Amino acid sequence: xxxxxxxxxxxxxxxxxxxxxxxxxxxxxxxxxxxxxxxxxxxxxxxxxxxxxxxxxxxxxxxxxxxxxxxxxxxxxxxxxxxxxxxxxxxxxxxxxxxxxxxxxxxxxxxxxxxxxxxxxxxxxxxxxxxxxxxxxxxxxxxxxxxxxxxxxxxxxxxxxxxxxxxxxxxxxxxxxxxxxxxxxxxxxxxxxxxxxxxxxxxxxxxxxxxxxxxxxxxxxxxxxxxxxxxxxxxxxxxxxxxxxxxxxxxxxxxxxxxxxxxxxxxxxxxxxxxxxxxxxxxxxxxxxxxxxxxxxxxxxxxxxxxxxxxxxxxxx
Amino acid sequence: xxxxxxxxxxxxxxxxxxxxxxxxxxxxxxxxxxxxxxxxxxxxxxxxxxxxxxxxxxxxxxxxxxxxxxxxxxxxxxxxxxxxxxxxxxxxxxxxxxxxxxxxxxxxxxxxxxxxxxxxxxxxxxxxxxxxxxxxxxxxxxxxxxxxxxxxxxxxxxxxxxxxxxxxxxxxxxxxxxxxxxxxxxxxxxxxxxxxxxxxxxxxxxxxxxxxxxxxxxxxxxxxxxxxxxxxxxxxxxxxxxxxxxxxxxxxxxxxxxxxxxxxxxxxxxxxxxxxxxxxxxxxxxxxxxxxxxxx
Lengths: 317, 296
Hints:
heterodimer; A: mainly alpha; two-stranded antiparallel sheet; B: mainly alpha; ABC transporter involved in vitamin B12 uptake, BtuC; two-stranded antiparallel ribbon; 2 strands; 3% strand; globular
Protein backbone atom coordinates (compact mmCIF):
# COMPACT_ATOMS: atom_id res chain seq x y z
CA UNK A 1 0.00 0.00 0.00
CA UNK A 2 1.27 3.48 -0.87
CA UNK A 3 1.11 5.37 2.40
CA UNK A 4 2.06 8.69 0.79
CA UNK A 5 -0.96 8.48 -1.53
CA UNK A 6 -3.18 7.67 1.47
CA UNK A 7 -1.75 10.67 3.34
CA UNK A 8 -2.35 13.02 0.43
CA UNK A 9 -5.91 11.76 -0.02
CA UNK A 10 -6.48 12.33 3.70
CA UNK A 11 -5.00 15.81 3.46
CA UNK A 12 -7.32 16.59 0.53
CA UNK A 13 -10.39 15.26 2.38
CA UNK A 14 -9.63 17.19 5.60
CA UNK A 15 -8.77 20.31 3.60
CA UNK A 16 -11.99 20.27 1.56
CA UNK A 17 -14.27 20.01 4.61
CA UNK A 18 -12.21 22.28 6.91
CA UNK A 19 -13.88 25.59 5.88
CA UNK A 20 -17.34 24.06 6.50
CA UNK A 21 -16.42 22.79 9.98
CA UNK A 22 -14.22 25.65 11.20
CA UNK A 23 -15.33 28.74 9.25
CA UNK A 24 -14.12 30.93 12.13
CA UNK A 25 -10.52 29.73 11.75
CA UNK A 26 -9.89 30.44 8.08
CA UNK A 27 -6.81 32.63 8.68
CA UNK A 28 -5.20 29.91 10.81
CA UNK A 29 -6.05 27.31 8.15
CA UNK A 30 -4.50 29.37 5.34
CA UNK A 31 -1.38 30.05 7.44
CA UNK A 32 -0.98 26.33 8.18
CA UNK A 33 -1.32 25.40 4.50
CA UNK A 34 1.13 28.07 3.35
CA UNK A 35 3.69 26.87 5.89
CA UNK A 36 3.10 23.23 4.87
CA UNK A 37 3.96 24.22 1.31
CA UNK A 38 6.89 26.49 2.20
CA UNK A 39 8.49 24.10 4.68
CA UNK A 40 8.10 21.21 2.22
CA UNK A 41 9.62 23.33 -0.55
CA UNK A 42 12.47 24.39 1.77
CA UNK A 43 13.06 20.74 2.62
CA UNK A 44 13.86 19.72 -0.96
CA UNK A 45 17.01 21.82 -0.57
CA UNK A 46 17.52 21.91 3.21
CA UNK A 47 16.51 18.36 4.10
CA UNK A 48 16.77 16.07 1.10
CA UNK A 49 19.90 17.79 -0.24
CA UNK A 50 21.32 18.94 3.10
CA UNK A 51 21.89 22.61 2.15
CA UNK A 52 20.41 24.65 5.00
CA UNK A 53 19.14 27.97 3.65
CA UNK A 54 18.16 30.88 5.89
CA UNK A 55 17.22 33.08 2.95
CA UNK A 56 13.95 31.58 1.69
CA UNK A 57 11.82 34.60 2.62
CA UNK A 58 13.33 36.17 -0.50
CA UNK A 59 11.29 33.78 -2.65
CA UNK A 60 8.14 34.49 -0.63
CA UNK A 61 8.67 38.21 -1.22
CA UNK A 62 9.48 37.66 -4.89
CA UNK A 63 6.25 35.71 -5.51
CA UNK A 64 4.11 38.22 -3.63
CA UNK A 65 5.64 41.26 -5.34
CA UNK A 66 5.49 39.81 -8.87
CA UNK A 67 1.78 39.06 -8.42
CA UNK A 68 1.00 42.44 -6.82
CA UNK A 69 3.01 44.61 -9.19
CA UNK A 70 1.89 42.65 -12.25
CA UNK A 71 -1.71 43.37 -11.30
CA UNK A 72 -1.24 47.00 -10.24
CA UNK A 73 1.08 48.22 -12.98
CA UNK A 74 0.35 46.05 -16.01
CA UNK A 75 -3.09 44.60 -15.26
CA UNK A 76 -1.74 41.05 -15.52
CA UNK A 77 -3.94 38.45 -13.85
CA UNK A 78 -2.43 36.47 -10.94
CA UNK A 79 -2.51 33.13 -12.82
CA UNK A 80 -0.12 34.61 -15.41
CA UNK A 81 2.09 36.42 -12.93
CA UNK A 82 2.45 33.27 -10.82
CA UNK A 83 3.98 31.58 -13.86
CA UNK A 84 6.26 34.59 -14.21
CA UNK A 85 7.21 34.31 -10.51
CA UNK A 86 8.03 30.61 -10.97
CA UNK A 87 10.33 31.46 -13.86
CA UNK A 88 11.97 34.37 -12.04
CA UNK A 89 12.45 32.35 -8.85
CA UNK A 90 14.01 29.41 -10.71
CA UNK A 91 16.30 31.72 -12.68
CA UNK A 92 17.45 33.62 -9.59
CA UNK A 93 17.91 30.37 -7.66
CA UNK A 94 20.07 29.14 -10.52
CA UNK A 95 22.32 32.22 -10.44
CA UNK A 96 22.37 32.34 -6.62
CA UNK A 97 23.24 28.63 -6.45
CA UNK A 98 25.88 28.89 -9.17
CA UNK A 99 27.63 31.54 -7.08
CA UNK A 100 27.33 29.94 -3.61
CA UNK A 101 27.26 26.14 -4.02
CA UNK A 102 31.03 26.03 -3.88
CA UNK A 103 30.61 26.79 -0.17
CA UNK A 104 29.96 23.91 2.18
CA UNK A 105 27.96 23.51 5.37
CA UNK A 106 27.64 26.57 7.59
CA UNK A 107 29.34 28.82 5.04
CA UNK A 108 26.53 28.18 2.57
CA UNK A 109 24.00 29.02 5.29
CA UNK A 110 25.77 32.30 6.08
CA UNK A 111 25.86 33.25 2.41
CA UNK A 112 22.10 32.70 2.04
CA UNK A 113 21.46 35.17 4.88
CA UNK A 114 23.80 37.70 3.28
CA UNK A 115 22.13 37.34 -0.14
CA UNK A 116 18.62 37.61 1.27
CA UNK A 117 19.63 40.70 3.29
CA UNK A 118 21.01 42.40 0.18
CA UNK A 119 17.75 41.64 -1.66
CA UNK A 120 15.80 43.02 1.32
CA UNK A 121 17.77 46.28 1.22
CA UNK A 122 17.08 46.53 -2.52
CA UNK A 123 13.36 45.94 -1.95
CA UNK A 124 13.25 48.67 0.70
CA UNK A 125 15.34 51.27 -1.14
CA UNK A 126 14.50 50.90 -4.84
CA UNK A 127 11.18 52.74 -4.91
CA UNK A 128 10.84 52.56 -8.73
CA UNK A 129 10.97 48.76 -8.53
CA UNK A 130 8.99 47.81 -5.43
CA UNK A 131 7.30 50.96 -4.16
CA UNK A 132 9.83 51.14 -1.32
CA UNK A 133 9.37 50.80 2.42
CA UNK A 134 5.80 52.12 2.42
CA UNK A 135 4.58 48.97 0.68
CA UNK A 136 2.17 48.04 -2.11
CA UNK A 137 -1.59 47.66 -1.86
CA UNK A 138 -3.52 45.25 -4.10
CA UNK A 139 -6.77 47.16 -4.67
CA UNK A 140 -8.49 45.00 -7.27
CA UNK A 141 -8.18 41.52 -8.75
CA UNK A 142 -9.95 39.91 -11.71
CA UNK A 143 -12.88 37.56 -10.96
CA UNK A 144 -12.49 34.40 -13.07
CA UNK A 145 -15.92 32.69 -13.44
CA UNK A 146 -17.21 35.02 -10.73
CA UNK A 147 -14.79 33.71 -8.12
CA UNK A 148 -13.72 36.40 -5.67
CA UNK A 149 -9.96 36.07 -5.05
CA UNK A 150 -10.22 38.33 -1.99
CA UNK A 151 -12.51 35.87 -0.20
CA UNK A 152 -10.88 33.75 2.49
CA UNK A 153 -12.57 30.63 1.06
CA UNK A 154 -10.92 31.03 -2.35
CA UNK A 155 -7.57 31.75 -0.69
CA UNK A 156 -7.95 28.67 1.50
CA UNK A 157 -8.48 26.34 -1.46
CA UNK A 158 -5.61 27.98 -3.37
CA UNK A 159 -3.34 27.42 -0.36
CA UNK A 160 -4.63 23.83 -0.10
CA UNK A 161 -3.74 23.21 -3.74
CA UNK A 162 -0.28 24.71 -3.14
CA UNK A 163 0.33 22.54 -0.06
CA UNK A 164 -0.86 19.34 -1.78
CA UNK A 165 1.18 19.98 -4.92
CA UNK A 166 4.30 20.60 -2.80
CA UNK A 167 3.91 17.48 -0.67
CA UNK A 168 2.86 15.44 -3.72
CA UNK A 169 5.91 16.54 -5.70
CA UNK A 170 8.28 15.66 -2.85
CA UNK A 171 6.56 12.29 -2.36
CA UNK A 172 6.96 11.62 -6.07
CA UNK A 173 10.60 12.73 -6.18
CA UNK A 174 11.54 10.78 -3.04
CA UNK A 175 11.12 7.44 -4.81
CA UNK A 176 12.55 8.56 -8.16
CA UNK A 177 16.13 8.85 -9.38
CA UNK A 178 16.35 12.54 -8.44
CA UNK A 179 15.35 11.73 -4.85
CA UNK A 180 18.21 9.25 -4.53
CA UNK A 181 20.63 11.71 -6.10
CA UNK A 182 19.60 14.42 -3.62
CA UNK A 183 20.22 12.08 -0.69
CA UNK A 184 23.52 10.87 -2.11
CA UNK A 185 24.76 14.47 -2.34
CA UNK A 186 23.60 15.16 1.22
CA UNK A 187 25.35 12.13 2.68
CA UNK A 188 28.70 12.52 0.94
CA UNK A 189 29.46 14.69 -2.05
CA UNK A 190 32.68 12.88 -2.92
CA UNK A 191 31.04 9.44 -2.93
CA UNK A 192 28.18 10.86 -4.98
CA UNK A 193 30.69 12.10 -7.53
CA UNK A 194 32.32 8.69 -7.58
CA UNK A 195 28.91 7.25 -8.42
CA UNK A 196 28.67 9.54 -11.44
CA UNK A 197 26.49 12.25 -9.89
CA UNK A 198 27.29 15.92 -10.46
CA UNK A 199 26.66 17.43 -7.00
CA UNK A 200 26.40 21.03 -8.18
CA UNK A 201 23.85 20.13 -10.86
CA UNK A 202 21.78 18.17 -8.34
CA UNK A 203 21.90 21.00 -5.78
CA UNK A 204 20.89 23.50 -8.47
CA UNK A 205 17.86 21.36 -9.40
CA UNK A 206 16.83 21.19 -5.73
CA UNK A 207 17.33 24.94 -5.21
CA UNK A 208 15.38 25.88 -8.36
CA UNK A 209 12.48 23.60 -7.43
CA UNK A 210 12.56 24.84 -3.85
CA UNK A 211 12.65 28.52 -4.83
CA UNK A 212 9.96 28.20 -7.50
CA UNK A 213 7.53 26.39 -5.16
CA UNK A 214 8.17 28.92 -2.38
CA UNK A 215 7.42 31.77 -4.80
CA UNK A 216 4.05 30.19 -5.70
CA UNK A 217 3.16 30.22 -2.00
CA UNK A 218 4.43 33.79 -1.86
CA UNK A 219 2.00 34.80 -4.62
CA UNK A 220 -0.93 33.32 -2.68
CA UNK A 221 0.37 34.98 0.51
CA UNK A 222 0.50 38.33 -1.31
CA UNK A 223 -3.18 38.03 -2.29
CA UNK A 224 -4.00 36.87 1.26
CA UNK A 225 -2.27 39.92 2.82
CA UNK A 226 -3.30 42.27 -0.03
CA UNK A 227 -0.92 44.80 1.58
CA UNK A 228 2.75 44.04 0.93
CA UNK A 229 5.53 45.52 3.04
CA UNK A 230 9.16 44.68 2.24
CA UNK A 231 10.23 44.38 5.88
CA UNK A 232 7.53 41.76 6.46
CA UNK A 233 7.97 39.72 3.29
CA UNK A 234 11.76 39.82 3.04
CA UNK A 235 12.27 39.38 6.78
CA UNK A 236 15.05 37.03 7.87
CA UNK A 237 12.77 35.83 10.69
CA UNK A 238 10.33 34.48 8.08
CA UNK A 239 13.23 32.52 6.55
CA UNK A 240 14.11 31.23 10.02
CA UNK A 241 10.47 30.24 10.65
CA UNK A 242 10.24 28.30 7.38
CA UNK A 243 13.53 26.48 8.02
CA UNK A 244 12.76 25.64 11.65
CA UNK A 245 9.26 24.37 10.75
CA UNK A 246 10.83 21.79 8.45
CA UNK A 247 13.67 20.89 10.85
CA UNK A 248 11.42 20.50 13.90
CA UNK A 249 8.98 18.36 11.90
CA UNK A 250 11.74 16.23 10.42
CA UNK A 251 14.20 17.02 7.67
CA UNK A 252 14.33 14.82 4.60
CA UNK A 253 10.96 13.19 5.27
CA UNK A 254 7.85 13.60 3.10
CA UNK A 255 5.55 14.45 6.01
CA UNK A 256 7.92 16.08 8.52
CA UNK A 257 7.58 19.67 7.26
CA UNK A 258 3.78 19.34 7.09
CA UNK A 259 3.59 18.01 10.66
CA UNK A 260 5.92 20.80 11.80
CA UNK A 261 3.72 23.42 10.15
CA UNK A 262 0.53 22.16 11.82
CA UNK A 263 2.26 21.91 15.20
CA UNK A 264 3.95 25.32 15.11
CA UNK A 265 1.09 27.38 13.67
CA UNK A 266 -1.42 25.81 16.09
CA UNK A 267 0.99 26.30 19.02
CA UNK A 268 1.51 29.92 17.96
CA UNK A 269 -2.27 30.38 17.94
CA UNK A 270 -2.78 28.71 21.34
CA UNK A 271 -0.10 30.86 23.02
CA UNK A 272 -1.10 33.99 21.11
CA UNK A 273 -2.48 35.75 24.18
CA UNK A 274 0.44 34.70 26.41
CA UNK A 275 3.31 35.58 24.09
CA UNK A 276 1.75 38.18 21.74
CA UNK A 277 4.52 39.18 19.30
CA UNK A 278 7.03 36.96 21.07
CA UNK A 279 5.63 33.79 19.49
CA UNK A 280 9.02 32.91 18.00
CA UNK A 281 9.91 31.89 21.55
CA UNK A 282 8.12 28.60 20.79
CA UNK A 283 10.30 28.05 17.72
CA UNK A 284 13.41 28.73 19.81
CA UNK A 285 12.49 26.28 22.56
CA UNK A 286 11.35 23.55 20.16
CA UNK A 287 14.44 23.74 17.92
CA UNK A 288 16.65 23.53 21.00
CA UNK A 289 14.73 20.47 22.20
CA UNK A 290 14.93 18.89 18.74
CA UNK A 291 18.68 19.47 18.38
CA UNK A 292 19.36 18.08 21.85
CA UNK A 293 16.94 15.16 22.01
CA UNK A 294 15.44 14.37 18.58
CA UNK A 295 18.11 15.20 15.96
CA UNK A 296 15.98 13.71 13.17
CA UNK A 297 12.94 15.81 13.99
CA UNK A 298 9.53 14.53 15.12
CA UNK A 299 8.57 12.51 12.05
CA UNK A 300 12.13 11.33 11.41
CA UNK A 301 12.48 9.96 14.94
CA UNK A 302 9.02 8.39 14.90
CA UNK A 303 9.54 6.59 11.60
CA UNK A 304 12.92 5.31 12.78
CA UNK A 305 11.31 3.80 15.87
CA UNK A 306 8.54 2.22 13.79
CA UNK A 307 11.05 0.69 11.41
CA UNK A 308 13.09 -0.70 14.32
CA UNK A 309 10.03 -2.18 16.01
CA UNK A 310 8.88 -3.79 12.77
CA UNK A 311 12.36 -5.21 12.29
CA UNK A 312 12.47 -6.55 15.85
CA UNK A 313 9.09 -8.21 15.34
CA UNK A 314 10.15 -9.76 12.05
CA UNK A 315 13.17 -11.30 13.75
CA UNK A 316 11.09 -12.75 16.57
CA UNK A 317 8.55 -14.44 14.30
CA UNK B 1 44.38 71.46 5.83
CA UNK B 2 42.39 71.41 2.61
CA UNK B 3 38.59 71.43 2.66
CA UNK B 4 38.04 67.88 1.38
CA UNK B 5 40.57 66.27 3.64
CA UNK B 6 39.03 67.21 6.99
CA UNK B 7 35.64 65.52 6.47
CA UNK B 8 37.49 62.51 5.11
CA UNK B 9 39.70 62.27 8.20
CA UNK B 10 36.63 62.81 10.34
CA UNK B 11 34.92 59.85 8.66
CA UNK B 12 37.97 57.62 8.91
CA UNK B 13 38.33 58.44 12.62
CA UNK B 14 34.65 57.65 13.27
CA UNK B 15 34.91 54.49 11.18
CA UNK B 16 37.94 53.26 13.08
CA UNK B 17 36.30 53.89 16.45
CA UNK B 18 33.02 52.16 15.58
CA UNK B 19 35.06 49.46 13.82
CA UNK B 20 36.88 48.87 17.09
CA UNK B 21 33.59 47.86 18.70
CA UNK B 22 32.80 45.60 15.73
CA UNK B 23 36.24 44.09 16.26
CA UNK B 24 35.40 43.44 19.91
CA UNK B 25 32.25 41.57 18.86
CA UNK B 26 34.10 39.70 16.12
CA UNK B 27 36.94 38.67 18.42
CA UNK B 28 34.48 36.93 20.76
CA UNK B 29 32.89 35.06 17.86
CA UNK B 30 36.20 34.07 16.32
CA UNK B 31 37.62 32.91 19.67
CA UNK B 32 34.61 30.63 20.13
CA UNK B 33 34.89 29.30 16.58
CA UNK B 34 38.65 28.89 16.74
CA UNK B 35 38.62 26.81 19.91
CA UNK B 36 35.24 25.06 19.80
CA UNK B 37 34.31 24.98 16.08
CA UNK B 38 30.92 26.36 17.16
CA UNK B 39 29.04 28.65 14.78
CA UNK B 40 27.48 30.97 17.36
CA UNK B 41 24.26 32.47 16.03
CA UNK B 42 23.38 33.91 19.45
CA UNK B 43 26.41 36.22 19.54
CA UNK B 44 24.43 39.35 18.60
CA UNK B 45 21.87 38.54 21.28
CA UNK B 46 24.67 38.51 23.88
CA UNK B 47 25.58 42.03 22.68
CA UNK B 48 21.94 43.02 23.21
CA UNK B 49 21.99 41.46 26.70
CA UNK B 50 24.89 43.80 27.53
CA UNK B 51 22.88 46.76 26.21
CA UNK B 52 19.85 45.88 28.31
CA UNK B 53 22.03 45.37 31.38
CA UNK B 54 23.33 48.94 31.00
CA UNK B 55 19.79 50.23 30.36
CA UNK B 56 18.36 48.54 33.46
CA UNK B 57 21.06 49.86 35.82
CA UNK B 58 20.84 53.30 34.25
CA UNK B 59 17.08 53.51 34.67
CA UNK B 60 16.92 51.94 38.13
CA UNK B 61 20.01 53.43 39.78
CA UNK B 62 21.14 56.14 37.38
CA UNK B 63 24.45 54.37 36.74
CA UNK B 64 26.74 55.34 33.90
CA UNK B 65 26.78 52.50 31.32
CA UNK B 66 30.46 51.84 32.00
CA UNK B 67 29.79 51.38 35.71
CA UNK B 68 27.35 48.58 34.90
CA UNK B 69 30.29 46.61 33.45
CA UNK B 70 31.05 45.66 37.07
CA UNK B 71 27.97 43.44 36.98
CA UNK B 72 27.60 42.88 33.22
CA UNK B 73 31.02 41.26 32.71
CA UNK B 74 30.81 38.55 35.39
CA UNK B 75 27.14 37.96 34.51
CA UNK B 76 28.06 37.58 30.83
CA UNK B 77 30.80 35.11 31.68
CA UNK B 78 28.39 33.09 33.80
CA UNK B 79 25.71 33.07 31.08
CA UNK B 80 28.29 31.85 28.56
CA UNK B 81 29.52 29.07 30.83
CA UNK B 82 25.96 27.95 31.56
CA UNK B 83 25.04 27.91 27.86
CA UNK B 84 28.10 25.83 27.08
CA UNK B 85 27.52 23.41 29.96
CA UNK B 86 23.77 22.97 29.50
CA UNK B 87 23.47 23.06 25.70
CA UNK B 88 26.64 22.98 23.63
CA UNK B 89 28.47 20.31 25.65
CA UNK B 90 25.54 17.94 25.10
CA UNK B 91 25.78 18.36 21.34
CA UNK B 92 29.49 17.59 21.58
CA UNK B 93 31.06 16.57 18.32
CA UNK B 94 27.89 16.55 16.22
CA UNK B 95 28.22 18.36 12.87
CA UNK B 96 28.72 22.14 12.95
CA UNK B 97 25.15 22.51 11.75
CA UNK B 98 23.79 21.28 15.12
CA UNK B 99 25.60 24.03 17.02
CA UNK B 100 24.34 26.54 14.45
CA UNK B 101 20.73 25.41 15.01
CA UNK B 102 21.08 25.25 18.80
CA UNK B 103 22.51 28.78 19.02
CA UNK B 104 19.86 30.00 16.56
CA UNK B 105 17.26 28.59 18.98
CA UNK B 106 19.01 30.33 21.90
CA UNK B 107 19.01 33.63 20.03
CA UNK B 108 15.23 33.36 19.47
CA UNK B 109 14.73 32.52 23.15
CA UNK B 110 16.86 35.46 24.38
CA UNK B 111 15.37 37.99 21.94
CA UNK B 112 11.76 37.05 22.65
CA UNK B 113 12.29 36.83 26.41
CA UNK B 114 13.65 40.41 26.27
CA UNK B 115 10.59 41.39 24.22
CA UNK B 116 8.26 39.87 26.82
CA UNK B 117 10.12 41.52 29.73
CA UNK B 118 10.86 44.99 28.40
CA UNK B 119 8.33 45.47 25.57
CA UNK B 120 9.03 46.20 21.94
CA UNK B 121 9.91 49.90 21.92
CA UNK B 122 13.59 50.68 21.28
CA UNK B 123 15.54 51.85 24.33
CA UNK B 124 18.78 53.69 24.88
CA UNK B 125 20.82 55.37 27.62
CA UNK B 126 21.31 59.12 27.62
CA UNK B 127 24.69 60.04 29.06
CA UNK B 128 25.57 63.63 30.06
CA UNK B 129 28.56 63.59 27.73
CA UNK B 130 26.50 62.35 24.74
CA UNK B 131 27.22 65.40 22.56
CA UNK B 132 30.67 66.33 23.91
CA UNK B 133 33.55 66.20 21.47
CA UNK B 134 37.27 66.70 21.64
CA UNK B 135 39.30 68.26 18.89
CA UNK B 136 42.17 66.43 17.26
CA UNK B 137 44.76 67.83 14.84
CA UNK B 138 43.06 71.20 14.85
CA UNK B 139 39.77 70.48 13.09
CA UNK B 140 38.80 66.81 13.42
CA UNK B 141 36.10 66.42 16.07
CA UNK B 142 35.79 63.12 17.85
CA UNK B 143 32.79 62.27 19.98
CA UNK B 144 33.63 61.35 23.56
CA UNK B 145 31.19 58.42 23.48
CA UNK B 146 32.94 56.93 20.47
CA UNK B 147 36.34 57.56 22.00
CA UNK B 148 35.34 55.80 25.22
CA UNK B 149 34.08 52.84 23.14
CA UNK B 150 37.47 52.79 21.41
CA UNK B 151 39.32 52.81 24.74
CA UNK B 152 37.09 50.01 26.06
CA UNK B 153 37.89 47.96 22.95
CA UNK B 154 41.62 48.42 23.34
CA UNK B 155 41.49 47.50 27.04
CA UNK B 156 39.32 44.40 26.41
CA UNK B 157 41.39 43.10 23.50
CA UNK B 158 44.64 43.90 25.31
CA UNK B 159 43.39 41.97 28.33
CA UNK B 160 42.45 39.02 26.13
CA UNK B 161 45.88 39.10 24.51
CA UNK B 162 47.61 38.97 27.89
CA UNK B 163 45.32 36.18 29.06
CA UNK B 164 45.97 34.07 25.96
CA UNK B 165 49.73 34.65 25.76
CA UNK B 166 50.94 35.24 29.32
CA UNK B 167 48.96 32.83 31.49
CA UNK B 168 48.69 29.10 31.99
CA UNK B 169 44.95 29.25 31.15
CA UNK B 170 45.82 30.96 27.88
CA UNK B 171 48.27 28.20 27.06
CA UNK B 172 45.57 25.63 27.70
CA UNK B 173 43.14 27.52 25.45
CA UNK B 174 45.69 27.79 22.64
CA UNK B 175 46.58 24.16 23.01
CA UNK B 176 42.96 23.09 22.81
CA UNK B 177 42.43 25.21 19.71
CA UNK B 178 45.42 23.69 18.00
CA UNK B 179 44.68 20.07 18.76
CA UNK B 180 41.95 19.02 21.14
CA UNK B 181 43.02 15.41 21.47
CA UNK B 182 46.65 16.38 21.98
CA UNK B 183 45.65 18.87 24.68
CA UNK B 184 43.58 16.19 26.37
CA UNK B 185 46.59 13.83 26.29
CA UNK B 186 48.87 16.28 28.08
CA UNK B 187 46.35 16.70 30.86
CA UNK B 188 44.33 19.74 29.85
CA UNK B 189 40.68 19.56 30.83
CA UNK B 190 39.32 20.59 27.43
CA UNK B 191 35.71 20.58 28.62
CA UNK B 192 36.58 23.24 31.16
CA UNK B 193 38.51 25.13 28.48
CA UNK B 194 35.47 25.09 26.20
CA UNK B 195 33.20 26.39 28.97
CA UNK B 196 35.71 29.11 29.77
CA UNK B 197 36.13 30.12 26.12
CA UNK B 198 32.39 30.40 25.58
CA UNK B 199 32.20 32.47 28.78
CA UNK B 200 34.99 34.76 27.56
CA UNK B 201 33.40 35.18 24.13
CA UNK B 202 30.07 36.05 25.71
CA UNK B 203 31.79 38.50 28.07
CA UNK B 204 33.41 40.32 25.13
CA UNK B 205 30.02 40.55 23.37
CA UNK B 206 28.40 41.94 26.52
CA UNK B 207 31.21 44.52 26.89
CA UNK B 208 30.65 45.63 23.29
CA UNK B 209 26.93 46.02 24.00
CA UNK B 210 27.63 48.27 27.00
CA UNK B 211 30.07 50.37 24.96
CA UNK B 212 27.55 50.75 22.11
CA UNK B 213 24.40 51.64 24.04
CA UNK B 214 25.04 55.41 24.37
CA UNK B 215 25.34 55.48 20.56
CA UNK B 216 22.23 53.67 19.40
CA UNK B 217 18.82 52.32 20.33
CA UNK B 218 18.44 48.67 21.26
CA UNK B 219 15.28 46.86 20.19
CA UNK B 220 14.81 43.36 21.57
CA UNK B 221 14.17 41.38 18.39
CA UNK B 222 16.03 43.18 15.59
CA UNK B 223 19.28 44.52 17.08
CA UNK B 224 20.68 41.06 17.89
CA UNK B 225 20.37 39.78 14.32
CA UNK B 226 22.10 42.88 12.98
CA UNK B 227 25.10 42.35 15.23
CA UNK B 228 25.28 38.59 14.68
CA UNK B 229 25.52 39.29 10.97
CA UNK B 230 28.12 42.03 11.50
CA UNK B 231 30.13 39.68 13.69
CA UNK B 232 30.19 37.08 10.91
CA UNK B 233 31.08 39.71 8.32
CA UNK B 234 33.98 40.89 10.52
CA UNK B 235 35.34 37.42 11.18
CA UNK B 236 34.98 36.19 7.62
CA UNK B 237 36.59 39.40 6.29
CA UNK B 238 39.63 38.74 8.42
CA UNK B 239 39.66 34.96 8.44
CA UNK B 240 37.51 32.84 10.74
CA UNK B 241 39.31 31.64 13.88
CA UNK B 242 42.07 34.25 13.85
CA UNK B 243 41.94 36.97 16.51
CA UNK B 244 44.33 39.46 14.90
CA UNK B 245 42.42 39.11 11.64
CA UNK B 246 39.11 39.77 13.40
CA UNK B 247 40.51 43.06 14.71
CA UNK B 248 41.58 44.03 11.18
CA UNK B 249 38.21 42.93 9.80
CA UNK B 250 36.32 44.98 12.40
CA UNK B 251 38.27 48.18 11.72
CA UNK B 252 37.87 47.63 7.98
CA UNK B 253 34.10 47.12 8.25
CA UNK B 254 33.73 50.26 10.37
CA UNK B 255 35.64 52.40 7.88
CA UNK B 256 33.90 50.86 4.83
CA UNK B 257 30.45 51.46 6.37
CA UNK B 258 31.13 55.09 7.31
CA UNK B 259 32.84 55.98 4.03
CA UNK B 260 30.24 54.10 1.95
CA UNK B 261 27.42 55.85 3.78
CA UNK B 262 28.87 59.33 3.29
CA UNK B 263 30.29 59.04 -0.25
CA UNK B 264 27.92 56.54 -1.90
CA UNK B 265 24.39 56.12 -0.55
CA UNK B 266 23.56 55.84 3.15
CA UNK B 267 20.55 53.56 2.46
CA UNK B 268 22.93 50.75 1.58
CA UNK B 269 25.17 51.20 4.63
CA UNK B 270 24.54 47.60 5.75
CA UNK B 271 24.91 46.19 2.25
CA UNK B 272 28.57 47.15 1.71
CA UNK B 273 29.74 44.79 4.42
CA UNK B 274 27.51 41.99 3.11
CA UNK B 275 28.76 42.32 -0.45
CA UNK B 276 32.36 42.27 0.79
CA UNK B 277 31.41 39.23 2.89
CA UNK B 278 30.10 37.24 -0.10
CA UNK B 279 33.07 38.22 -2.26
CA UNK B 280 35.53 37.13 0.44
CA UNK B 281 33.69 33.83 0.99
CA UNK B 282 33.87 33.11 -2.71
CA UNK B 283 37.32 34.25 -3.66
CA UNK B 284 39.39 34.24 -0.48
CA UNK B 285 37.73 31.89 2.01
CA UNK B 286 40.74 32.02 4.33
CA UNK B 287 40.07 35.75 4.82
CA UNK B 288 42.01 38.86 3.88
CA UNK B 289 44.71 38.35 6.49
CA UNK B 290 44.53 34.59 6.94
CA UNK B 291 47.26 32.17 5.99
CA UNK B 292 45.59 29.08 7.33
CA UNK B 293 42.19 28.88 8.93
CA UNK B 294 42.91 27.14 12.20
CA UNK B 295 44.64 29.66 14.39
CA UNK B 296 43.77 31.48 17.57
